[in-house]
Design goal:
Elements lengths: L1 H7 L50 E7 L3 H6 L5 H4 L4 E5 L1 E5 L2 E4 L5 H14 L2 E2 L2 E4 L5 H7 L1 H18 L3 E5 L2 H4 L6 H21 L3 E6 L18 H4 L5 E5 L14 H14 L8 E6 L2 E10 L9 E3 L4 H8 L4 E3 L4 E11 L4 E10 L2 H13 L4 E5 L6 H12 L5
Parallel strand pairs: 1-2, 1-16, 2-5, 3-6, 6-7, 7-8, 8-9, 9-10, 10-16
Antiparallel strand pairs: 3-4, 11-12, 11-15, 13-14, 14-15
Helix pairs in contact: 5-8, 6-8, 12-13
């Protein structure tokens, strides 16, 4: 079962020396100025010209889940030299379990979490913990629908931020999108806006920032069946300091790409349409550096503990590729890598052979998406997730965020 463990664990980490030929080149475009002499000219002075402005460098944020803390802290470059490139980091192990209850995940290694937060402080990185809605479907919507309970929830968040001495708070309430019935969105939307507005005032009065992490929207509409308009990206933009758009997880249940390029471009276009121009500088585009590993066909009878969909990332892929003899294939349409292989699962009683399919984003894919965001005028990116990346991904992230791009 060692193959199963390696394929299924997002919490394992290995040093990667795997090198694959990248399929995204960075092409330099040289602009030539051509002087055109008119047949007749009534212009007596110089003709005004406009020089295109290169895209601005991107700030870098990131989420850090608890299950990668051991890997991060084992890295020799996990200190100030790497962290100094980050603007803010969101520890990803705090959950909202009631209107006045915020808890650390049971599996969080408290000693490592404390050490990591200490490193962030020493490096001068803003600490903006993510708060995840871990309640059952509809419960957060119910909390926000009652002004008194909603205000009590705001107070609980402010007190949590004070106790942690956090620089800000990141609200990551995904149950609206992925658990609640979309028929409830029309009622939830105004309550959500009121909540964000009230929390914004409170946190700003406390000298703290407010970020939200929300899924994509594809236009400015707040009705219909396209995008997660329940979050009303445009309406909340004036209240938040960062509007983080999760531009990944395109495929989750069924095998497929993580953030195909055509969809990624739709996400960019959609948020720019939805958010008023004066708040575009607050948009932060979430960039995925991971993948999934799905079973597609099964021959035989699998044991109950046979792996289903599992996560992969640059820190774990090389071991899987090496042991299984996998030959990755570049998909230039999606801007990702794919691979298939067979896995035998045997517990001594039952046995099956799974055909498994992988999709993931590598260093070149990260760089390409960062540059797409910058060229669209988005000046901030956030990596999902810090701790997944290897040196190649990290270097690609830094380079693509800062290098000069020809407009």
């Amino acid at each position: 079962m060692d193959d199963v463990a390696a394929a299924s664990s997002e919490r394992q980490s290995t040093s990667r020396s795997w090198a694959l030929l990248g399929f995204f080149g960075v092409f330099c475009v040289v602009a030539f100025a051509v002087a055109l002499w008119p047949r007749e000219s009534h212009v007596t002075g110089p003709v005004a010209t406009t020089t295109p402005v290169p895209p601005a460098p991107a700030t870098i944020d990131g989420w850090t889940p608890y299950w990668v803390l051991d890997r991060i802290l084992e890295q020799p470059d996990s200190g100030a030299s790497r962290l100094s490139n980050l603007r803010e980091v969101s520890p990803f192990w705090f959950s909202v379990t009631g209107f006045d209850a915020i808890d650390s995940d049971t599996f969080t290694p408290d000693d490592l979490a404390e050490e990591y937060i200490g490193q962030l402080r020493n490096a001068g990185v803003a600490i903006v913990p993510s708060l995840l809605d871990r309640m059952d479907a509809g419960q957060m919507a119910t909390i926000l629908s009652n002004p008194v309970v909603r205000s009590a929830h705001v107070v609980a968040i402010r007190e949590f931020a004070e106790q942690l001495d956090a620089d800000g708070i990141d609200i990551d309430y995904e149950q609206f999108a992925f658990a609640d019935d979309p028929s409830t969105w029309i009622a939830t939307r105004p309550n959500w806006i009121d909540f964000i507005a009230e929390l914004s005032v409170g946190l700003h009065d406390d000298g703290r920032t407010l970020s939200v992490s929300i899924p994509a929207v594809y236009d400015e509409r707040v009705t219909g069946d396209r995008g997660y308009w329940v979050y009303d990206h445009g309406a909340i933009a004036e209240y938040v300091d960062s509007l983080r758009i999760m531009a990944y997880d395109y495929s989750v249940v069924e095998p497929g790409p993580i953030a195909p390029l055509d969809w990624f471009e739709q996400v960019i276009d959609g948020v720019l349409l939805a958010v008023p121009q004066q708040f575009h500088e607050r948009i932060v585009l979430g960039i995925g550096s991971y993948g999934y590993n799905w079973p597609t066909t099964v021959i035989g009878e699998c044991p109950e503990d046979a792996p289903g969909r599992t996560g992969v990332n640059p820190g774990t892929l090389d071991d899987l590729i090496s042991r299984r003899g996998i030959e990755p294939v570049a998909d230039v349409v999606t801007g990702e890598w794919t691979a298939t292989y067979e896995l035998t699962v045997d517990n001594g009683v039952t046995q099956c052979v799974q055909t498994r399919q992988l999709h993931w984003i590598d260093a070149d894919g990260v760089a390409l998406r960062v540059e797409m965001a910058r060229r669209a005028g988005i000046e901030g990116v956030a990596l999902w997730a810090l701790g997944y990346e290897d040196d190649e991904v990290w270097n690609a992230l830094i380079s693509s965020s800062t290098r000069n791009l020809i407009p």
